[in-house]
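Customer escalation, tier 2.

The customer says the design service returned an amino acid string that "doesn't look like it belongs to this structure." They asked us to rerun it and document both sides in this ticket. The original structure tokens are below, unchanged.
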């Protein structure tokens, strides 16, 4: 994004001496939300029975989330797949009929994936354990984040702009130059980088039996932004 200062641009700008400086603002902030990715997977020979079992287990998962005071608006289905199961392929013998080589369905696999957003980070480990105990049998991991990124984005841009201004003043003083005016302000973009996922559990089976435990570490989220300032300069 380029923000020229209105009224300062002119046709003679190209010939004016300039000083261009860039600076980065960065800060680390603790996350205030976690998104947990779970799935219920069921398999069997009859599709109706497999779907029924999947629905029952998912209903227990949703009820457990409700008991942990997670609002329903923070629970989202991300995928629901019905996958036919086939036997291992058999090589077609010489002279064999086409019907003998067509695969037949021997069962079905239903996978219902949900994301659960948890804003009370003190219960993240508890949510993992209890949801796996009541019905979920897949856990893909945790994504940490911020409920509102904008205040931190603006703050790092402030820091970056201040650092760029200080850099320009230092260079001008060292080179006996005068900073006449700011000709352009350019935002180089702001990035929000979540920490790596930290999760430890022996197995879903152990958690379901009450013998497993989850240990989670939120870490910090890095917010970085750059600002470039273009000054008109003149001899001091």
């Amino acid at each position: 994004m380029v923000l020229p200062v209105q009224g300062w641009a002119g046709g003679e700008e190209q010939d004016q001496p300039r000083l261009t400086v860039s600076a980065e603002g960065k800060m680390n902030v603790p996350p205030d939300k976690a998104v947990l990715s779970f799935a219920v997977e069921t398999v069997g020979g009859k599709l109706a029975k497999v779907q029924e079992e999947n629905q029952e287990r998912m209903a227990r998962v949703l009820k457990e989330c409700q008991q942990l005071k997670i609002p329903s608006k923070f629970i989202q289905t991300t995928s629901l797949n019905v996958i036919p199961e086939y036997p291992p392929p058999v090589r077609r013998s010489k002279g064999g009929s086409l019907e003998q080589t067509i695969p037949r369905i021997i069962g079905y696999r239903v996978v219902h994936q949900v994301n659960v957003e948890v804003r009370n980070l003190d219960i993240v480990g508890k949510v993992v354990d209890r949801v796996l105990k009541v019905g979920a049998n897949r856990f893909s991991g945790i994504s940490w984040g911020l409920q509102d990124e904008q205040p931190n984005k603006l703050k790092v841009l402030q820091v970056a702009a201040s650092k760029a201004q200080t850099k320009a003043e230092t260079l001008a003083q060292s080179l006996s130059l005068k900073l006449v005016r700011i000709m352009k302000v350019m935002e180089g973009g702001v990035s929000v980088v979540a920490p790596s996922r930290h999760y430890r559990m022996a197995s879903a089976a152990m958690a379901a039996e009450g013998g497993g435990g989850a240990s989670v570490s939120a870490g910090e989220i890095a917010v970085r932004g750059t600002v470039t300032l273009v000054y008109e300069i003149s001899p001091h």
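Tier 2 assessment: The sequence is consistent with the input. Residues 25 and 156 are 5 Å apart (CA to CA). The helical segments are 47-67, 124-134, 150-174, 204-208. Sent an explanation to the customer and offered a walkthrough call.
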